[in-house]
Amino acid sequence: MRAGRVAGGQLDGAVISDFALSLAEMPSARTDVARIDRIRALEDLKFVCVVAQARTAAEFAASQRAKAVSRGTVACAGGAADVERDTIRTVPEGVGGVADAERDAIRAVPEGAMSHGRQSAEVRAKALRLAHRSAAAQVALARRESPTRGGRYVGLAEILVHEMPLMLAALEVGVLNERRAEIIARETACLSRAQRLTVDYEIAGQLEGLGDRELETLVRSIAYRLEPEAATARSDRAVRDR
Question: So what's the pLDDT on residue 161?
Answer without folding.
Answer: 95
